[in-house]
Amino acid sequence: ALRQELVELDKKYFIHPTSSLQDQQANGPAIIFDKAEGVHVWDLNGKKYLEGMASLWNVNIGYGRKELAEVAKEQLEKCGYVSSFTGFSNEPAIRLAAKVAEMTPGDLNGVFFTSGGSESNDSAYKLVRHYWKVKGKPEKTKIVARKRAYHGVASGSTSATGIESFHDFTTSLAPGFVHVDPDSPEAFRKLIEEEGADTIAAFLTEPIQGAGGVNLPKEGYLQEIRKICDENDILFIADEVINGFGRTGKMFACEHYDIVPDVLLLAKGISSGYVQLGAVVLREKLHKELIELSPGVLMHGFTYSGHPTACAVGLKNIEIMENENMVENSRVMGDLLAEKLTELQKETDIVGEVRHLGLLGAVEIVKNQETGERFAEKVTPKIVAAARERGLILRNVVYWEKDTIVYSPPLCMTEEDVNEFASILKEAVLEVQKSL
Ligand code: PLP
């Protein structure tokens, strides 16, 4: 009865993000979540699922950590909110800024807080453009992003996104965004020649593309891009909204490639999704120059930049991640899970490439395992549905030419969870394979 009541109210009032409005009207929500613990979530009917996506690639430390609830309660009781605008500050925001500065690669050390990834992206575009403006180069405005990239849905970040369906949806696209071939540094060089380095503010990239299908960079690609940026006075922005905080088996994905971005974008794993939080981190030189050259008011800031409760939760989240070696666990369990999923290439007829870094991975579904040819119609939605029926939540990439299942489970995953994940996916693939 509770479920039915909620379904009716949901259908009537709740406009869901990135969902089919018509499907919502016709069917209501498929699952109403009720509680969660570790890597598992339960729906209102008491059915248990392994959350193979950590919800939206974000619940990195796993569900049900009471310590986070406790620090949130403590902070809400002590001082639920204060602003960090002109002259004001608060201890959780100060300590989290210092912590993020200490743990991020190289000399990244100036931290601007946001409430999520889209805000981190749009803030970064404004900050780097402002930087060039105060450096006397106001015409350096273009942001170069990669095809297949996902950067969010605010006006700037949806424009930076390189997945066509997001552009087709809207007329809100902002000027000044250019997309390049996602694998070729040469394409970036050519673009610089055509457009002129003096018109380009920054190159923007997820080290490993997430929503675009978990695409690992080609060997040497990111290092070469870093070099081209240096040669041409173009800033390098790394969007680690998904990649960051242990997802790839290192604290930050840039560490796999020995690069230090000029600007690092964070969200999701910074609070493991328990509260809304994100950050833009600037390298020392950039941070210093902004202070020196921009003596007026920084005319950019959100009500919730440096929210004390969000920052207190973020700090505790990072403490748990470090104390419980979750980054190392992400690497070890990530390798084990990928190994088991690779076995599906032999155990089924339709599993193709399996790729991963840590607990960020993808499984391709193919018609022909030799050639990689895919089916004319996408098969992955069926597999995702069959897996869900059996208690494993996954996601298929709906907007790219490949037929790809992506995964991104909590980093607290155990070997037992890995086995459960792999065996459910195997059953789901075999069931769907029979029906083809
Ligand atoms: N950047 C990347 C790489 C993301 O994956 C996402 C969200 O999935 C965003 C930015 C946008 O973050 P948010 O949804 O918190 O605004």
Automatic annotation (TrEMBL):
The keyword Transcription regulation belongs to this UniProt entry's keyword annotation: no
Gene3D superfamilies membership: Aspartate Aminotransferase, domain 1 (3.90.1150.10), Type I PLP-dependent aspartate aminotransferase-like (Major domain) (3.40.640.10)
Domain of life (superkingdom): Bacteria
Keywords linked to the UniProt accession: Aminotransferase, Pyridoxal phosphate, Transferase
Pfam families listed in its UniProt record: Aminotran_3
GO molecular function: pyridoxal phosphate binding; transaminase activity
Stated family: Belongs to the class-III pyridoxal-phosphate-dependent aminotransferase family.
Protein name, entry field: Aspartate aminotransferase family protein
